[in-house]
Design a protein that fits this description.
The protein is 11% helix and 32% strand. By secondary structure, it is mainly beta. Strands 4, 30, 31, 32, 33 and 34 form a 6-stranded antiparallel beta sheet that branches. It has a 5-stranded antiparallel beta sheet with strand order 3-7-6-5-35.
Length: 588
């Protein structure tokens, strides 16, 4: 009955999960057993490490983490009975045949989940941490609490925050789950209970079976969907003197960092009852007004709803957008001084396709023409909403946007996802081409110019330039998607038909990172140059199975590493993060 549970998988040392010689691009299936205890402060042991081209060599005595045995939870009769039905569905009705939802493949290598890690001191193994990095870099990502019973997409993993707190040149790492309603319910039950939204509904028979099982669990009192189904696994945002862990399928979860670097979940936040459903994982914060602009989207009308928060975090009324006539996968958006800009791409929700043709609720629509929608930032309704067709322009993430020509022209920077039909199943077949899109709001003329021909995603800028013209973009290199081999710096002013890359940092053979984040040296200095700061990111060495925190000089031509911190625990590949300064942490 619990054949797919991690409790029944053999215990394998991490060194035996996949040796470097056995690694292949196609991801060798690995039954990745892992415990769920809380990791204790590591003890020093002697190991040897293999040098890599650009990641500094390991110290001879890295700290290793030992986790105590997990406290077993005695399952209730409901858990046992419903678990048996779940196993029947996963084995005989809808087994995880496709590699994209096979948990043995999806959760292999450094995508495998890790245990929680209490605040643990780190070792700076190269250079020194700049004194201006006084605060915490926190990155969110999926980390399933229980090994999946059946089909599993990475988007369905429980959210885990990996925070490295820096003070006076010293660093402390902490990894904690966001204590969502889903996480705590399944922790107390000792087994997975909630359905996997991205991977659990495939075809009529499987969808009906899993929906029936979910209804039975609800009626039996195993969980209450009114308390939220979200994972809080995508990103973080700091506004209104609160820090939130975000996942676009639910309300945000308020979190805080303690004085010793630990992470606490304060709870699900509805802004005094004014936010009843969900919040995008990519709200935009205007650095001048400190207002936060956001939206939600869903499978029922209105498919898109826009709203914003004032500088104190008070939510303003919803603006439903009924001109979004079909449910679309609307993951990100952009703002300018006067507008919020939304995208309607060729990935959308199609229940009929799922029922009659099988596959996921999300799917590709080749007949749809992508478009961009503009609405005034302080609109009371959608009467001034304007849409422009932009054939072939499919973005998942927006980088920035600004106005020119007295507000008559808007420029948007974003990666255009080529071959987007593969984005949910075979992301390795996609190519993200960073483009500069210019829209004349008076004539409707749209012009597109590529900034770089490389495969680049997770583009970021200096946060002080959100909504206004910027010169530089920093993006992760997706040569080995879904892993990233390095980071580049792009210059938006290089002109048309010229490669915009002006600096590159490749992490080295077998070393992969994720989204970079820009931290300004002098955030309160209006005269500071736009690129005067540092890029920070977690990087994992698959040769030595070690993770590091890198600090790179954003102004240098090679994005020079100014500090490398060896982490006391493995940090899996994840999604989005941010740096919160100590002065802001003290407000939590």
């Amino acid at each position: 009955m619990y054949a797919f549970s991690s409790s029944f998988l053999p215990s394998l040392p991490s060194s035996k999960l996949l040796s470097p010689a056995k690694r292949t691009q196609s991801y060798v299936p690995v039954l990745n057993a892992y415990s769920h205890g809380t990791e204790e402060k590591p003890q020093n042991v002697t190991t040897t490490a293999k040098n890599t081209p650009n990641i500094p060599n390991s110290s001879p005595q890295p700290r290793k983490v030992a986790a105590p045995a997990k406290i077993r939870v005695e399952p209730t009769m409901c858990t046992v009975i419903f678990g048996a039905f779940d196993d029947f569905i996963n084995r005989f009705i809808d087994p995880p045949i496709r590699p994209s939802v096979d948990p043995r493949r999806v959760l292999s290598h450094n995508f495998a989940p890790v245990d929680e890690l209490p605040p643990t001191e780190c070792e700076v193994v190269e250079g020194s941490l700049p004194l201006c990095l006084n605060g915490s870099y926190i990155r969110n990502g999926p980390n399933p609490q229980h090994f999946p019973r059946g089909p599993f997409h990475l988007f369905d993993g429980d959210g885990m925050l990996h925070s490295i707190r820096i003070s006076e040149g010293r660093a402390t790492l902490c990894s904690r789950y966001v204590k969502t309603y889903k996480y705590t319910t399944e922790r107390d039950a000792g087994a997975p209970i909630f359905p996997n939204i991205f991977s659990g509904f495939n075809g009529l028979i499987a969808s009906t079976a899993r929906a029936t099982l979910s209804v039975a669990r609800i009626l039996a009192g195993q969980y209450n969907p009114a308390n939220g189904l979200g994972l809080a696994n995508t990103s973080l945002a700091f506004f209104g003197n609160r820090l939130y862990a975000l996942g676009e399928s639910d309300l945000p979860y308020s979190v805080r960092l303690t004085s010793n670097g630990d992470i606490e979940t304060l709870g699900r936040h509805n802004f005094d009852g004014k936010l009843l459903r969900s919040l995008t994982a990519h709200p935009k914060i205007d650095p001048e007004t400190c207002e936060t602009f956001a939206f939600r989207y869903g499978p029922v009308p209105p498919f898109l709803t826009y709203f914003y928060f004032d500088a104190n975090g008070n939510k303003h009324p919803d603006v439903p957008i009924f001109s979004m006539v079909r449910p679309s996968f609307l993951h990100d958006f952009a703002i300018t001084k006067n507008y919020a800009i939304f995208t309607d791409i060729q990935i959308g929700m199609n229940p009929m396709r799922m029922i009659f043709r099988g596959g996921s609720l999300m799917g590709y629509d080749q007949t749809k023409v992508p478009r961009l929608g503009f609405i005034p930032r302080y609109a009371k309704d959608e009467s001034e909403m304007t849409w422009f067709d932009v054939p072939g322009f499919n973005l998942i993430h927006a980088i920035n946007a600004w106005e020119e020509d007295d507000g008559n022209t808007v420029v948007m920077i974003a990666p255009n996802m080529l071959f987007i039909e593969h984005v949910l199943e075979r992301v390795d077949l996609t190519h993200a081409l960073v483009e500069k899109v210019t829209i004349n709001l008076k004539t409707g003329l749209v012009k597109r110019d590529p900034i770089s021909t490389r495969n680049l995603e997770y583009g970021v800028i200096n946060p002080a330039y959100v909504g206004k013209k910027n010169k530089y973009v920093y993006a992760a290199i997706g040569d080995s998607l879904p892993k990233f081999t390095g980071v580049v710096k792009l210059d938006m002013s290089n002109g048309e038909c010229r490669e915009g890359t002006v600096a590159t940092r490749i992490y080295g053979q077998g070393c992969y990172g994720g989204e970079p984040f820009f931290v300004a040296k002098e955030p309160d200095n209006p005269e500071a140059e736009e690129d005067d700061g540092y890029l920070v990111s977690y990087v994992h060495d698959e040769n030595t199975e070690e993770s590091r925190f890198l600090v790179m000089d954003a102004k240098s031509p090679e994005l020079e590493i100014v500090a490398a911190v060896k982490l006391p625990g493995r940090v899996p590949y994840g999604f989005h993060g941010l740096f919160v300064r100590e002065t802001d942490l003290n407000k939590l």
